[in-house]
Amino acid sequence: MAFDQTADLDDEALLVLYANGDPAAAAELTARLAPRLLAFCNRMLRDLAEAEDVVQEAMLRLWKVAPDWATGQAKPSTWVFRVASNLCTDRLRKRRGVGLDEIAEPEDERPGAEAQMLQAERLSALDAALHTLPERQRQAVILRHIEGLANPEIGEILELSVEAVESLTARGKRGLAAALAGRKEELGL
Amino acid sequence: MSKHDDNPGLDLYGLFAEAKSARVPSSERLNARIIADAAALQARPVATRGVPRRNFFSRALEGLGGWPALGGLATAAGAGIYLGFAQPDFLAGGVEIVTDPGFAASSFLPGDNMFFEEG
Fold first, then answer.
1. Do A122 and B15 touch (CB under 8 A)?
2. pLDDT tens digits along A75-85
3. How far apart are CA A75 and CA A12, in angstroms?
4. Complex ipTM value
5. Could you give the CA distance from residue A120 to residue B54 in angstroms, rounded to a whole number?
6. Contacts of A153-160 spanning 24+ positions with Cβ under 8 A
7. Pick from B22, B33, B39: which is nearest to A52 by CA?
């Protein structure tokens, strides 16, 4: 199927097409999912190269499961976000065993950060504040408020009830507000 | 309740919106890696995976018309063998009766001879 024809199909139909040997379906699914996954993983890991590896691995698992995909189950995007989320968690757990000196410095503390534009400062501060949150809160806040997913879908990704997701995001926002409160004037928030 | 009320004095939602619009674009290199993985998996003989190669018997059976046709063939063969061994009375003299000038179809149906006699 031609690439422009695949644009009208939903993710599940594309996955079935891919499983049936259509190469254009893989390109279209990659174009749809990879940027969102990369944004999420990059915010979780704060390391672009590592985030790219996680996205590639998550997508690889999606390709592998495609021939056995049962239509009507979770959406492919939800499924692959769940895989990416778990991969990020695994990597973060491994990092905890790594010395602090081996972890890349946060971007807002790198030399020359003062010269960055205000927006970059704000986003950097947001990333830093996100990393003060417990991991599940951080995941929930990113998925809900930055990736714009609905609470039921986040519940499927994190394998939590909708109420638990609401609770996580509420606590996460309070944590962010507390973390950013001291820089309110500086960042123009 | 406005969405700002839970964070008074701090525009968290504005910050979230900025973060969303400043999303790191997925690089061509990453997309190429992902699509290469997809192509490598597609190149495997997925279509034949789990489908065993059919042997000669399976293909011959399909050529004959499947199990129902084979059942009919077996029945016909069985009947032929039975007739070969049982040799009905009217075939006691062998196939010579076919060439016998005195042979008539009515010989098979003696009770129906009247149709031939009465026209």
1. yes
2. 899 999 999 99
3. 7
4. 0.77
5. 64
6. A153/A75, A153/A78, A156/A74, A156/A78, A156/A82, A157/A78, A157/A81, A157/A82, A157/A85, A158/A82, A158/A85, A159/A82
7. B33
- CB < 8 Å to A176, chain B: 7, 12
Please tell me the number of Cα atoms within 13 Å of B96 on its side-chain side: 3
Name the residue among B22, B34, B42 with its Cβ closest to that of A30: B34
Contacts of B38 in chain A (CB under 8 A): 18, 23, 26, 30, 59, 63
Residue written as tokens 């290199």? B29
Residues 6+ apart with CB under 8 A from A187: A118, A121, A122, A125, A180
pTM to 2 decimals? 0.63
Report the C-alpha gap between A87 and B15 in whole angstroms: 26
Return mean pLDDT, chain B: 72
Distance CA A53, CA B37 (A): 12
CA distance A44 to A63: 23
The one-letter code for the residue type at A100 is L
Q: Which residue of A has its CA nearest to B24?
A: A39
Tell me the three state secondary structure of residue A72: coil
Q: Measure the CA–CA gap between B84 and B79, rounded to whole angstroms.
A: 9
What is the number of CB-based contacts under 8 A between chain A and chain B?
Answer: 103
Residues in A touching B47 (Cβ below 8 Å): 21
